[in-house]
Specification:
Order of helices and strands: HEEHEEEEHEHEEE
Strand order of the largest sheet: 3-4-6-5-7-2-1-8
Structural class: alpha+beta
Shape: globular
Number of strands: 10
Length: 219
């Protein structure tokens, strides 16, 4: 019995030593964050860093839509002053999307990797009551509401300069009707993302792979 116990202790020690110094690799090490440039119909601009370390599948989806021209010409169709502005719907009424959905990268959906808080300037994905229903619609926070949105929506980027925040304030200051639809519509001219020469893959709900590749690839 004593020999068996000694052997077990030796095995445990060996396994413990084998794990010492082993660090989890960061698939994004050395990869700069993509930068999205949102140009509006009046020529004003918002620039945002996107954070694939927080929400890799969401960022990959956004990049694919933006750089394909999906968002060009769409309206900012909802404005809740001091809270957020919303866009990304081809129907411009809150019911449309790209024809597919992606999985929600937020805590209430079992995804613990996203710690980006819903503070001023943060970009986040819209969804229905279905946690895995996001597609193309997104909102940009004018206010800070971590208690209301953190862990419930997939935040994935943030405006990166004062010019962008001034543009956000201008868009959010227009008069709206009872449904928060702006009385003066602002359209998106273009959204383009500088990926710094990398591609960021994503998967749609229902695709065979269990999870998206977390590693970007150089072009």
């Amino acid at each position: 019995m004593k020999r068996l116990l000694t052997a077990l202790l030796a095995l445990i020690l060996l396994l413990s030593l084998a794990g010492c110094g082993r660090e989890e690799t960061d698939p994004y090490e050395g990869v700069p964050d993509p930068v999205a440039t949102i140009t509006l119909s009046d020529g004003s601009v918002m620039r945002a860093e996107l954070y694939p370390r927080q929400a890799p599948n969401t960022v990959g989806n956004f990049i694919a839509l933006a750089n394909s021209g999906f968002y060009d010409g769409l309206e900012i169709f909802r404005v809740v002053t001091r809270a957020f502005i919303q866009t990304g719907d081809p129907l411009n009424n809150g019911t449309g999307g790209p024809g597919y959905a992606i999985r929600g990268e937020f805590a209430e959906n079992g995804y613990e990797g996203n710690t980006l808080s819903h503070t001023r300037g943060v970009l986040s994905m819209c969804r229905t009551e279905d946690f895995d229903s996001a597609g193309s619609q997104f909102f940009i926070m004018q206010g800070s509401y971590p208690a209301d949105y953190d862990g419930k929506y997939a935040a994935f980027g943030k405006l990166m300069d004062e010019e962008s925040l001034r543009t956000l304030n201008a868009v959010a200051s227009v008069a709206v009707d009872a449904d928060f639809r702006p009385l003066v519509i602002t359209k998106i001219e273009t959204i383009r993302v500088d990926t710094h020469g990398y591609t960021f893959p994503f998967l749609k709900v229902g695709e065979e792979e269990a999870a998206p590749s977390s590693a970007p690839e150089s072009e």
